[in-house]
Write a structure and sequence with these properties.
The protein has 2 domains: about 300 residues, 2-methylcitrate dehydratase PrpD, CATH 1.10.4100; about 120 residues, 60s Ribosomal Protein L30, Chain: A (2-Layer Sandwich), CATH 3.30.1330.120. About 50% of the residues lie in helices and about 5% in strands. The chain contains 21 helices and 6 strands. The strands form 2 sheets. A 4-stranded mixed beta sheet has the order 4-3-5-6. A hairpin with a 4-residue loop joins strand 5 and strand 6. Helix 2 runs parallel beside helix 19 and helix 14 runs parallel beside helix 16. The longest helix has 21 residues.
Length: about 450
Amino acid sequence: MEVTKKFAEYVVNASLEDFPPEAIVAAKAAIIDCLGCALAGSKEPLADVLANYLADLGGKPAATVIGRGFKTSAPEAGLINGAMSHALDYDDITFITKTHPSAVLIPAALPVAEEVGASGRDMLLAYLVGFEVACAVGDAISPAYFDDLGWHPTGPLGALGASAAAARLLGLDTEQTAMAISLGASQSSGLRQNFGTMTKPFHAGHACKSGITAAKLVQGGFTAGTDALEGRFGFMRAFSGGNDYDPEKAAASLGNRCFMIESGIEIKKYPCCGSAHLALDATTALQHQEALDAANIERIEVRVDFDPPRSLIHSRPREGLEGKFSMQYCLAAELLDGRVGMSTFTDEQVMRPEAQELIPKIEMKRHAGFEGQTSWTEAYNEVEIHLKDGRVLTQRADRATTGSLRGATSEEVRTKFLDTAAVALTQEKTAATLAMLDNLEDIGPVGPLADLLGG
């Protein structure tokens, strides 16, 4: 089977009517959430560095840089907007691929749509198509690419999805789209060893830029293979470690499964690594049951549904970005402050004496029920707090019912957007932006939306 070409046929022929109404609702919520995260991320130090870099490069002012008030070329806008969307690690997750899909797909679709004058409806469809492409590939390869080999799947799978989204918006034909996906595949990367630094969100930006670059190069006559997904030396074999991958399963999924519903989008409650969220929910529940004084804590055992540390690689963080990937700091902050929010992850907060004193008391290990787990919906974490007065407090948080990573309600998404967008936009611009996003499939060219997002 010519798998990459099957993917290309799907991208070219898909229509918004192919998707159930609930998929459209979920996609719009994801777009709202992602753009809010990008606006908040636009004031992070990472954004300053990238903005200065782009200023040195120059380039055609074709696409808006979110929250920064200037335009650049579409690929470079994708780079900075993607990185800013992921800068706070507050953006959404889909568990079937263990990726942050929207932080790549929205910053890929928006600048291309702005440049070519595409409508909100076109951009929404491009996002959905890119999401389904990335999920179909990720679902058909071994999880070893994430759990064992060290890849950050947002980078590799994101590049495929971004290539598909950009190809759709540029109106590429089937042959061109297959080449764009193949060229995107050759640019796929991202290493977990860089978690806790600016390079982690750069993975999203790089994937976004790679997808736009791939589609635009192919549009201009650049060539690539048309079998880079399934080939002997292709994407699926390379990123699965050469073991467990099924190209035909991936191709068969497109149009027959709807990953936007099956896997869904999980809106983050906390601006830190998703692997810490269940434990944070359990800790919060314990705090609601009993006022906990950090000074009275002897030790804490966190039992998780994975082999530690996974993405939580900083057991003794020394700066804010490392704190986002530290189970120990996340729980310490929750216990000390009663909340984990955007202000939690500064260098000063991580290094405060009371946090540094509590961090070594927190141990993370795999829970006994891990071996029997068959799907992410069965996942749970347990937090056991041993107090100096001899009492032991235990709380379990289940993935299926937790409030931290479940599909958020419309009101929750809007409330979060108002909070994140306020970092970069006035109240009036925030309201106007949200009104346009609420009616995304009905607006004309996305240029006015992009102008609002520019700040």
